[in-house]
Amino acid sequence: MNAATRRVLAVVSCLAIAAVCGLRGAVAESVRIPFALPGATAAAITLEAAVYRPASGTRFPLAVVNHGDPGPSHPDERRAMHPAYDVLRTWLVDHGYAVIVPMRRGFGSSDGDVAEDSGSCHNPDYVASGLAGADDIEAALAYMRRQPFVDSNRIVLVGHSSGGFGSLAEASRRPQGVVAVVSFAGGRGQVGPGDVCSPDKLVAAMGAFGTTTRVPTLWIYSENDQYFSPAFARQMFAAFAAGSPQAEFYGAPPYDSSGHTLVNHAGTGWESVVDAFLKKVVPGP
Questions:
Q1: Which stretches of 185-267 are assigned E, i.e. beta strand?
Q2: Over 50: is that where the pLDDT of 5 sits?
Q3: 3-state secondary structure string, 7-70?
Q4: What pLDDT, on a 0 to 100 scale, did the predictor assign at position 77?
Q5: CB neighbourhood size of 268 (10 A)
Q6: Residues linked to residue 261 through DSSP beta bridges, in sequence order
Q7: Main-chain phi, psi angles of 226, to 5 degrees
Q8: Are 136 and 159 in contact (CB under 8 A)?
Q9: Superfamily for domain range 53-281
Q10: Could you state, in order of their start, the residue ranges of all structural domains in the chain?
Q11: What are the pLDDT digits (tens) for 151-182?
């Protein structure tokens, strides 16, 4: 995709975003995040992202909203994705947060190839996968720390599914300014309802990330998540919390046919839980 095409798409996307956000009194824009490939000294590619913030005020705490992944067997779906999570990001803006929704490498119109596929289902490397996703999240953090409307000492990572997993991986590296993580249905490796590749390795990866995470984390799973059952979700949580005792777990009530996408729906109970958690762990200005 050439630069001119990117500019046109950015303008069209920005207008579409603004049309939605303007109804809620928010400022919205499409941006390209510089990303340096591993081993490079300068940015070689860019990542697609959308930024939202309240219309009034000067410096806001930041929420980085990290998306899920339809999986390696759906490359076209990966490229069809664009910044979304409208319910979540609107809720965050309404609660005084600046929000960025970045698309990681290989998703949407972000450059590059997907870097976080876990490998063989029989022997996945979930730690490497999570840290690859964390590299993209760190690029979004670096970009937003430079924005004058962001309080870079009050950053929350918020992720869904593989984005929740990547958020936990990023937190394990103790990034500057990150004070908390909210993970909705966090995990990866799901190949079908109740079927996760090498689940013991996923639990072990969560345990590894927990050993170096020092900020509070909130884990939210619906009781009818079709990919991560309540018992398995608690297994992952227990492994992580063994090294990071500030972790909290919330078992959300069942939602529709599968609660895996609970985060995309308003009025399903997560709002009050997240609100109480953020008020407790995010320091005042």
A1: 190-192, 195-196, 217-222, 247-252
A2: no
A3: HHHHHHHHHHHHHHHHHHCEEEEEEEEEECCCCCCCCCEEEEEEEEEECCCCCEEEEEEECCCC
A4: 96
A5: 18
A6: none
A7: -75, -15
A8: no
A9: Alpha/Beta hydrolase fold, catalytic domain (3.40.50.1820)
A10: 53-281
A11: 999 999 999 999 999 999 999 999 999 999 99
What pLDDT score was predicted for residue 24?
53
CB of 159 closer than 8 Å to CB of 171: no
Assign 223 to helix, strand or coil.
Answer: coil
The pair of three-digit structure tokens given for residue 189, joined into one six-digit string: 């490796």
Report the alpha-carbon distance of residue 36 to residue 247 in Å, rounded. Answer: 32
pLDDT at 123: 96
List pLDDT tens digits, range 124-135. Answer: 999 999 999 999
Backbone φ and ψ of 163, nearest 5°: -70, -30
Question: Residue 249 in 3-state DSSP?
Answer: strand
End-to-end CA distance of the chain: 41
- Encoding tokens for residue 135? 């590299």
Q: What is d(CA 185, CA 163) in angstroms, rounded to the nearest whole number?
A: 9
Query: What is the pLDDT at residue 14?
Result: 40
| Count of positions (residues) in the chain | 285
Q: Which strand (E) or helix (H) includes residue 270? A: helix 270-281
- Please list the alpha-helical segments (H only) found in 45-161: 75-80, 86-94, 126-145
